[in-house]
Amino acid sequence: MAQDASVNSGAGPRADTAPDRVARTQIKYHRWAKTDRTARFGDLFNLVSHPDYLWMAWTVVARNKGARTAGIDGVTVHQIEQRGEVLAFLSEIAATIEDGSYRPAPVRRVFIPKPGGKSRPLGIPTVTDRVVQQSLKMVLEPIFEADFLPVSYGFRPKRRAHDAVAEIHYYASRGYRWVLDADIEGCFDHIDHRVLLARVRARIADKKIVALVRAFLKAGVLDELGRQDSTDAGTPQGGIISPLLANIALSALDEVVMAPWQPGGDQATQWARRKRVRHGLGNWRIVRYADDFVIMTNGSRDDVLALKEQVAEVLGGLGLRLSEAKTRITHLEQGIDFLGFHLQWKQRRGGGKWYCMTFIADKAFRSIKQTIRQLIPRRSPRPLTAVIIEVNAALRGWTYYFRHALAGRRFSFLRYFTWRRIVAWQREQRRWNWSKVKRWLRRPDGSWRPIATPDAVLFDPTTVRVERYWYRGTKIPSPYDPIMAA
């Protein structure tokens, strides 16, 4: 350890860059955390205000889509950049953190629509708080990543929703077909602060870091009417640090459910799991993406019922509870929806073999169709080029996300749906009949040309290659483990 120069060691300037220095420090703390699972880390607070960490935090915040969005102070990232005050802004943040005068401001609460007419509260911190939260996250994440189990995928570096879906597919194909399809009621709004801070203290001995985490949790929210509400529970959605804190809390669920898989457990090896099956006992596994999770077993429905009671008990200790309306026990023959995908144990056409098949969920398909309807209204004076550009962005993002499902038919229908929508809009706008549409889009040989303008061509979803996403298991690289990341 002596040969590793820490960012906060007071070492002289180096020839390398800030990202290199921050990455080296993160790798060091991650390695220590993996080496000693009981170690508690002190002397971390000055990292949060270190110029390297603040500069890296600023670059992340500035690249974020919310850079043009202001908190309660009305200041945006672009305003700070246009005034050329970035370095002064970061220096002021560092000074307030070091002298103890920094206090997080309440977040500005807005409501974003959800499918079904409901809305979700979203907290928008000030730019100052976003930078400090990002810096704090860069300090804490390498340490807690050493503790998180590989069954957790949401809001973790180098992991994605497709990995979680691939794990469900992998174990379903190996007999894990009774499923607890769970939903936590208002997860981000009800996590118990005391329990969460206790889990932070289990790894962090620096009292100033714990106090800073607590300050963000208790910062409060300012609603659209200017009223300030306290936050006695939960991690408000929208904060940069919130997903990490939620994972710290919910990792308690992973640890309890996966305890038999740990070394010495009665499901720790493939041989032990097969022995349990021979004796009529089930094995189980959780797959979690943030607050969405399923628990799979190769046992019976009774095993899932017992697991549900265990899960309810663990969540109760975190201040959470399962939604009775949305949580269900099912067999994969009936299928489950997870992260926009529909997974089902089905027989191939013509009486062939049975497989776990991954489709696009109906809800996700209805969502993209509604998005297309909104982008292509029947009556709109907007230029065709502008509409095509926006539609292309929506189609590309959606199709590339779902290209690992059995999506060919839905991609074909989406191409037809979008084409018909644009043609109907142009007919309404230009008072065209079908003869004029044909003159616009038909080639001399009778084939149809793509809808296009001199500056844009309508994206064709069927050009996206549909391919399987393979389960990566424990081989997912970690940015804090240079051996795995290599």
Can you give a write-up of this model?
Keywords: Nucleotidyltransferase, RNA-directed DNA polymerase, Transferase. The protein is globular, with a radius of gyration of 26 Å. The chain has helices at 18-35, 45-48, 51-63, 77-82, 86-98, 127-145, 161-172, 187-190, 193-201, 207-217, 242-257, 270-278, 301-317, 362-375, 384-402, 408-430, 434-441, 482-485, and strands at residues 107-113, 119-124, 178-183, 221-222, 228-229, 284-289, 292-297, 328-331, 336-338, 341-347, 354-360, 452-453, 456-457. The chain contains 18 helices and 13 strands. It has a four-stranded mixed β-sheet, with no helix packed on it. The model is unreliable at 1-6 and 9-15 (pLDDT under 50).
Average pLDDT, all residues: 90
- Please mark out the parts with pLDDT under 50 across 5 or more consecutive residues, or reply none: 1-6, 9-15
Strand proportion:
5-15%
- What oligomeric state is this? single chain
Measured between the Cα atoms of the first and last residue, the distance is: 22 Å
Largest sheet: 4 strands, mixed
Morphology: globular
Question: Structural class, judged by helices and strands?
Answer: alpha+beta
How are strands sequenced across the largest beta sheet? Answer: 2-1-4-5
Question: What topology does this entry show?
Answer:
Blueprint: H1 18-35, H2 45-48, H3 51-63, H4 77-82, H5 86-98, E1 107-113, E2 119-124, H6 127-145, H7 161-172, E3 178-183, H8 187-190, H9 193-201, H10 207-217, E4 221-222, E5 228-229, H11 242-257, H12 270-278, E6 284-289, E7 292-297, H13 301-317, E8 328-331, E9 336-338, E10 341-347, E11 354-360, H14 362-375, H15 384-402, H16 408-430, H17 434-441, E12 452-453, E13 456-457, H18 482-485
Parallel strand pairs: 1-4
Antiparallel strand pairs: 1-2, 3-7, 3-8, 4-5, 6-7, 9-10, 10-11, 12-13
Pfam family, one: GIIM
Domain Reverse transcriptase: 93-343
Protein name: Group II intron reverse transcriptase/maturase
